[in-house]
Design a protein that fits this description.
Strand content: 5-15%
Number of helices: 15
Largest sheet: 4 strands, parallel
Structural class: alpha/beta
Helix content: 40-55%
């Protein structure tokens, strides 16, 4: 009879541990290296402590090193647009003047994040879209707690209890539309795809409220003043027959009718929170133009309408 030697027994234990407690070796979607290297038991607790909730979600696609390079916006420098530093754009063009209650973004738009978005938008690597969408979904409660509390959507308990009861969630999600030409070139609208990911995650309706009337030069190629001129009067509410009434009666009817469950209990109708999604906030000209059109729905919905924008990156 053959007995296990010390070496074979330890090898068996190591393999058993890795099988039970470690995921299969996968390739990191960013650096293309192994995303889940086997760990020794005494290192497991140390690595787990290094990931916050957002990092844990991304471990399905990314290695620890790549997660560690993400430039999360941890502290907001501008309460209006969510930039990590003081923002002169908001001093020149206050968002509320355009019907936009505020904006929040997940990451700073550094070279690493530009590469990710380029791989998604221009090379069609949809895995980056899934990563970006998940980053937005998991970061939302941390970024929007202040907004929702100010609107009376959550009690002062806020935080975790508010999130678990869904009072933090928007009622309707919409997105910045793209032109027919860009849609033909890329085959998709990245803002719509990101909105759909969040809609599925939160079980919230995603409604295409806007259309882009004309093709414009790429915003990324414009100067600051050129962006404003380039995007002026480009967006309009969709002209589908009965589409504005559609908010009240059809696709979003169950959402509109159920608005009383989140807000304060008083004689005034509760407001509707609409989340406007895009990939990058640079000067805010695109989001301001979209919010101006959406704000015109106020008279149709006949109750307070709060438009919040949400982008993955803030330049």
């Amino acid at each position: 009879m053959r007995f296990f030697t010390k070496h074979t027994w330890s090898e068996w234990m190591r393999r058993g541990y890795n099988t039970l407690f470690q995921p299969e070796l996968t390739t990191c979607q960013s650096c293309r290296k192994n995303a889940a290297m086997p760990l020794q038991p005494n290192h497991l607790r140390q690595q787990a402590a290094s990931f916050d909730a957002r990092g844990q979600v991304l471990k399905l696609w990314l290695c620890a090193a790549c997660i560690g390079t993400i430039p999360w916006i941890q502290a907001v420098g501008c309460k209006s647009c969510g930039r990590a530093i003081r923002c002169t754009d908001c001093e020149r063009h206050p968002l509320h003047a355009w019907g936009l209650a505020g904006n929040r973004s997940v990451v700073r738009y550094d070279n690493h994040m530009k590469h990710w978005l380029s791989q998604y938008k221009f090379y069609g690597l949809n895995v980056y879209g899934e990563i970006i969408g998940r980053m937005m979904s998991v970061s939302y409660p941390m970024l929007f707690t202040g907004f929702m509390n100010s609107l009376g959507r959550c009690t002062s308990n806020g935080g975790r209890s508010g999130w678990s009861s869904n009072c933090m969630l928007p009622d309707i999600i919409t997105f910045v539309p793209t032109s027919e030409q860009r849609l033909y070139e890329r085959g998709f609208n990245q803002a719509e795809q990101l909105a759909q990911i969040m809609g599925r995650t939160w079980n919230r309706p995603v409604v295409p409220l806007l259309m882009r009337e004309q093709e414009t030069a790429k915003q990324s190629m414009q100067t600051r003043s050129g962006r404003e001129r380039n995007i002026a009067n480009v967006f309009q509410l969709r002209s589908d027959v009965g589409y504005v009434g559609h908010l009240e009666t059809n696709k979003c009817g169950h959402v509109i009718k159920g608005m009383g469950q989140h807000g304060k209990q008083n004689d005034q109708p509760d407001g509707i929170v609409m989340l406007l999604v895009d990939d990058v906030y640079t000067t805010g000209s695109t989001l301001r133009a979209c919010a101006r059109e959406i704000a015109s729905l106020q008279s149709v919905i006949r109750r307070p309408l709060y438009v919040l924008s949400y982008t993955w990156a803030r330049a």
